[in-house]
Write a structure and sequence with these properties.
Strand order of the largest sheet: 3-2-5-6
Number of helices: 1
Helix content: under 10%
Order of helices and strands: EHEEEEE
Strand content: 35-45%
Number of strands: 6
Distance between the termini: 12 Å
Shape: globular
Length: 90
Amino acid sequence: MLEFRYRVLDAAKAAPLFERRTKPLLTHAESGAKLIAPTPAKTGALRNSNPPLTGHTYWMFFANPGRLVKPGEHVKIEIGEFRVDGIVVH
């Protein structure tokens, strides 16, 4: 699993990131593989979906089958229209 953490600076602007129907996607730059945030039956989506609060830090997990993504490699995160490219995995 890969954990993505982020801090909300403006709750109104961040609201679309928390919509349950929006599916987050992580793209591994080196292989082009697209990884999803799992939704286990017992726990539900491994991400936050309550309304965001300014100044709070949130998280989401992405599947990483076979440890495809390794430390030092680059990924892109897409959540609806929000996109961040060039994230280095630690």
